[in-house]
Each structure stands twice: as C-alpha cells, then as structure tokens.
Amino acid sequence: MRFQELIDRLAEKVPVEALNIQQNNEISRVMIEDGADSELCTVHNTIVIVPRGQNMTGNAGGAVFIGKGEGILPPDAAQVSAGIPAERIALILQDLLLSENGKKVFENEILTLLVREESLDTVLTRLAERYQCAAVILDLSGRVLHHSSPFPEGVAYLSEYMERGICPPAYMEHLHRVEARKKRLCDREPFTSFCDEAGIWYLCANVLVHGELSGYCFLTRAENDFPEESGKLLTLVAGVVGNRMEQIYGAMPTNRQRWSHLIEDALTGLSGQQIRERAASFPESLPDRMQVIVLVRRMQDGRSENPEIVRGAAASAFPDDPMAVYDHHLVLLLPADVEQDDARAQSLRDLCGRQGLVCGVSFPFSDAARIRQHYDEALRAVRLSRKLYEADCLSTAHAMMIYEVLDRLPEGTDFDALCHPALRMLKDYDASHGTDLYNTLITLALNNYSMAKTCQDLFIHRNTMMYRKRRIEVLTGIPLDDPQLRFEIQFSLAVRNYRAGQD
Hints:
Layout: H1 3-10, E1 16-20, E2 29-32, E3 46-51, E4 62-66, E5 77-80, H2 86-115, H3 120-131, E6 134-139, E7 144-147, H4 156-162, H5 169-181, E8 191-195, E9 200-209, E10 212-221, H6 228-249, H7 254-267, H8 272-280, E11 290-297, H9 307-317, E12 323-326, E13 329-335, H10 342-355, E14 357-361, H11 371-387, E15 394-396, H12 397-407, H13 421-433, H14 437-446, H15 451-458, H16 462-476, H17 483-502
Parallel strand pairs: 2-3, 3-4, 4-5, 14-15
Antiparallel strand pairs: 1-5, 6-7, 6-10, 8-9, 9-10, 11-13, 11-14, 12-13
C-alpha cells in the first residue's frame, strides 16, 4: 500500500492534522522510533512513528509525527494529534497493511484458479466465502451458468431459483430494464444496484463477447456494503467468462444467443414452467407458430464431427433465427409452414446439399415449452426418411407420420395384407395382358389424382389417361373419386415404400 493511501485510511481512525506527500513510497512495514535526538537512518518501505521534533533526513519510506513541531513537515510525512499513543498508531497501520496483504494473497489465489481454468463454481464459491454473499453468472437468457454454494440466508429468494438452474423472471426483467437504460452497457466497470423485486443489492460486472453484452457476473447481498476490491475481482471473472463464451458461441447476436441457450436447456430437460418463465422475460419473442428443424449428417450415424461448422453455415443462411447444437445435431427454430415457404425450403435444401446433411421438420406449434417434443418429431422424421432412402433431403413429420405408424408394428407383420387388393389385381392383370394400369394408378395417386400431371409424367395423351382410368375402375369395381378408396391407395403406397426401404 502506498504512503498516502495508508495515511488516508489512518485518518479514518485518528485525526491527521498535516500531510506532506512527495515520493508516495510503497509501505510494507511499521516501526516505532522513540529516540528524541538521534537522526533516523534510511529505512526502505517502512513507515516510522516518531515524536514531532525528530530529524527524518534520508527516510525512504515515510513518517508519522506525533504532536506539533517547528517548521514544515519533511517529505512523505504526516502529523497526528499529540497524546495519541505511538503503539495505537502502529497497531492501526499494521492492521491496514495486513488487510492489504490479505487482499493481495486472495487476489493471487483467484488469479491462480482462473489461470489453471478451475471450475468457475469453485472461483465463485471462494468469492462468496470471502465477501459473505452469493456469486452468480447468468447468460442473457436467464440461464445460470455458474454459482457459488451454499447460498446465504439473506438471498433465499434467489437461491430457490438457482437450484433449478434459472434466474427469477422478475430479476431478469429488472436486468433487462437496466440493460435498456444504461448508456455504458459495454463498459467493463462494475456497478451496484438494488433490485426491488428480489429485495437485494447486487454488484454486477458485464460479460462481453466481441464488445457486446452477453451475460452478467454478480455478487448479491442484503446490504450495499461490497468491499472495493470485490469489483476488481468480479471484473476479472467476467472477462474469463466472456473469453470462454467467445470460443463457444463466436459472434452470435444477442437475441439469438438468448434463444440458443434456452433451446439447449429445453432439450436437456428444463421444465415447461421454467421455459415459459424465461421466455416471458426476453425482450424479443418467438413467432406465434414455429417448427423445429433438425439437421443431421446424411451418412453414418448422423452425428456431425464438427457441428459448429454447420452452425456457421446455417447462421449465414438464417441470420435472424435461433439455433443450437444438441447431441451433435444442429437445431433451428423457424416460422411455421417451412415446407410451403419456397425460399426457406430451398435455403434448407441448399444448406443440406453443401454440408452433406438431411433435415427433419416438426409439426407446427406455439408453446416454447414443447420444443423438446417437436425436436423428437423432427428427429424421427429424419431417421425414417433415411431408413426409406428418400431422395429429398427435407423430411417433414407430417409426411413421415404414416411411416412412423408402420415402423411401430410388431416384427412379422404381413404387410401385403395391409395393402388394398386392387393393387395386386392390377399388377397381375398387367403381367398377363401387357398393360400398364398398376403404374398408372400409382402415378395418379402420387400426383394427388391430377390427370394433367399424370399425363405429363407418363408421356401419354389425355384420352389414353381417361381410357386407363375407366379400365381401372371396371377391373376393381371401385370409382377412383371415392375418398375412402383414395385413402386406402395412399396407405398402400406408404406400405410399399416402407417395405422397399426395409428390403
């Protein structure tokens, strides 16, 4: 501690009547000199307590004179009131130096833990023990990244939520309000504030990634009496968190980062209530109706060797949409009816083509708490599509729904018995008469019974198509405009495709 700071701290305990600062040396020792006439020798980094009249020539530390004397104070000297015992002054100064040394030792301990990349939970617990408070790191979605333990009684409101891995929604709303009105959001300087909703004071250091706010590192306690040095250490921890986030998330925009973290937590088991609470505290909202998109590798086990590369490519194609990596798969949330949005569907197909991927699309939904359920739908659609060797890289849960039913049938099921007998009848008739009625019915069904599209695909005239349609109806005894027949034919085609994939 420097001489002036030490004297300033001394002045809080005893009256300091005069002060002369020149060198402002670093002080590490305290010494009492009671000789009245002898000249003190040079004592480096030492503050000497002496009667006012003693000569201090050559002192390389500083001096505290007790009582008034003649002339001006020598350099780096202070004068205190007469009658104050030298032993009391020495004890105060020694306590101050010991306290400062303890701070440095603790600071070195925290720095060592950070350099060794120890668990941030361990670092926060040491901070909490030192300053008798709770220490927490949040990302912008309200997810608790790290926290100290156990929590002191004064912040019980916070501890109930921290155990569940989320920040109280009211507290997140408070942080967002602070975020909205602060002019220096991207400063690294810590600040203190009071949260009315939680009834606690907190000291907060912003976590920055590429200069953008990405989270909060804070200490909480019932009173606003945070030690000065705690802000410095909290800022160091926030810097380390920012560096680690930068390595993981790169330059992801803030709003996507919030939702990315929430998607990850929803997929790893965060309860529906917690998902809704966190989503409600976000400044930005999800679409009213959305779909989960799961991107997996086309070959092998479907796991991407480096999903972050896929994330980077997807971020270029869908810059405003939230995404996350889960179980080596890339997961996106897109506005609903992706398969009918030609531009988005084409972007997905282009992305899959460049990266060697296939993608599954869930049913539409509105409740963010159901992200996990619809992720499972999209993933099943992908797996069934690969099982059936579908050519299209985009598979929807809607299109795969009937195959999912077939996939759940017990082993040994007679699939031929599930097909409409008209298909077998037409196949046998074609074999004995050299006609093409079976293929005509299949093509007609695949084209949703569009005569024009079927003529185009089969390269036949409309009159020929009309003739074949009538022959099919005569042979099967069932009109092709019968809705029930059409459903049974579609189901039969699904059975045929499923069996082909199995074979």
